[in-house]
Structure formats: structure tokens, C-alpha cells
Amino acid sequence: MTTSITLPASGHTKRKHRASDADPDVPRKKKKEKLKQDTGKPRRGTKPSTSEFRVTKASMTLSVPPVFASNLRAGAEEMLDSMIMRYIPSLCGVLLAHSNLHFLSPTASINADCPFAVCNVTFDATVWSPSMAMKLVGKIILYSPDHVSLLLHRTFNVSIPRHHIPQDVWEFEYGPAENDPEYGEGAVGSSADNEGDVGMKEGDGEKAEGKAVQEASGQWVHRLTGTKLGGTDGYLEFTVIGKTVANEMLSLQGSIQPDPFSEEHFATQSGKSSRKKSAE
Predict the structure, then answer these.
(1) What pTM did the predictor assign?
(2) Residues 26, 34: contact at Cβ < 8 Å?
């Protein structure tokens, strides 16, 4: 058994006819020529959008809970709000915002004993959807011998594996060991005792601790100049070579190789994995 519920008006208004449309004296030929000019082909110089952000017209079927039976529009908007910052397979990206919600049918259906109102909606979706081979810039947050971690737009995670870092240009420089008496915990404790009455600001301790952790983990440096990967500001440009979806979150895999999609890099990765399995 299927029950129908009347949905609120979508806000569309009928287009008013112009006086010229009803006027028989206006020649039809000119009207056709005008329409023909408006629906011309795109220019040859135009290029497709290469941005990682896009706005698209999306349609979706929603099951609105019965608590919103008196206001299905509010229920539909709340369900779309719950999808924000999540990877939506139908959109091929992460939903960032939505607007201009409209119902495709004047009624919603309730099937059998299910109290949820099923309705088809359309809306404008702002989506983060980076494509393969796209060049992006992220902030380095972690140096590791196996990979480099970046944060894109302070939100999305990016990982650059070791085999996608040019080994002839960059090398990993290990920091001081944790049990080193000059740089370890003993040195921090002794320096604090020797200071005695010397005051320290609250922020200084946190900065020193963060700096020690970063040095202890090591960093990727240039073989000739010794400069740190990412420079002083820590921003690094990379090429998108892979995507991973886990727990409705999208993360990227990047490369800074001059030829990121070469089979040589993927062969190096498969060789390392096979050696690990044989060792086990």
C-alpha cells in the first residue's frame, strides 16, 4: 500500500507571456533568428574547468523521517546537511555545501509500513572532486622515512610515498635519537633545572616541545643544498596519482616525481611489498 503526501511548493512561478508573443504583427522569422543566436555552439577557445571545486546540479532520492511530516522541506535540508564533508559516490566527490532545494514531484510516497516519506529532490551541490594528474599544493605536517604527509586546505589528507619522491634529489635526514643525552629527555630536564629562577613564557615551552619532536622525527632535505622539502613555509606542490575512500572520507595519494605515472615507480612499490611478505 502506498500513501501520498503533498509537498510544499518549490517556489517556481510560471513565465508570463510577453505582448509580442501574442501579437500577430510581429514576424516569426525574427524570433527564430534570435533563438538561434542564443543557442549557438561554444567558442573554440573555451577550455573545460580544471578546478578541484565544482558546482553541479544534483538529484537524489531521500527518505525523510516521520518527525518532519509537517515540514518535509526542513527534513530534506537536514538530511542534506548530514552529508556535508562526506564523500558521496553519486557526486564523485565530497559535498561541501548545497542550495536551491526543489522537489521533483508535488507528492511524497510512504510505502507499506515504512513511516519514512520518500521524495525526489534536486539541488545545487558544491563538491570537492580533484581529478587524476591534477597539480595541487598542500602543507606538510609530517616527515617520515616512508612517506610525507600533507594537509590540503587544512582539511583533507594527502600522502606522498617514498618511491614517489626523487631519491637522486632528496634524502631523508634522521633527527637526534630520543635517548641522546644532548637532545633527549635528560637534556630537557637538566636545562630546566639549570635555568632556576629564570622565567619562561607559557607559549615558549610548547614551541620548544613541538620543535624537538619535529627534529627527532627527521626530515627530507636536498642532497646538494641541504634545504628542507617544502621550504621554510612547508608548502609543497604535488600531482594527484590516487584516491582512497574510507569511512566516507576522501584522501589523496600524491607524487613529486617528474613522471608520476611511470611504471618504474609502481614496480618499486610492488617489489618492496613482495620482499616484506617473503621476510614474514
Answers:
(1) 0.69
(2) no
Q: How far apart are CA 185 and CA 192, in angstroms?
A: 11
pLDDT, tens only, 29-74: 443 433 333 333 434 444 445 799 999 999 999 999 999 999 999 9
Q: What angle do CA 104, 106, 111 make, to 5 degrees?
A: 90
Torsion of CA 228, 233, 237, 240, to 10 degrees: 100
**Residues in contact with 69: Cβ distance below 8 Å, sequence separation at least 6, in sequence order:** 5, 117
CATH class for the domain made up of 135-194+205-272: mainly beta
Every domain of the chain and the residues it spans:
1-8+49-129, 135-194+205-272
Domains 1-8+49-129 and 135-194+205-272 share a fold: no
Q: Domain 1-8+49-129's class?
A: alpha beta
Alpha-carbon distance values, 27 to 19, 21, 82 (Å): 13, 10, 53
DSSP strand pairing (87-88 vs 93-103): antiparallel
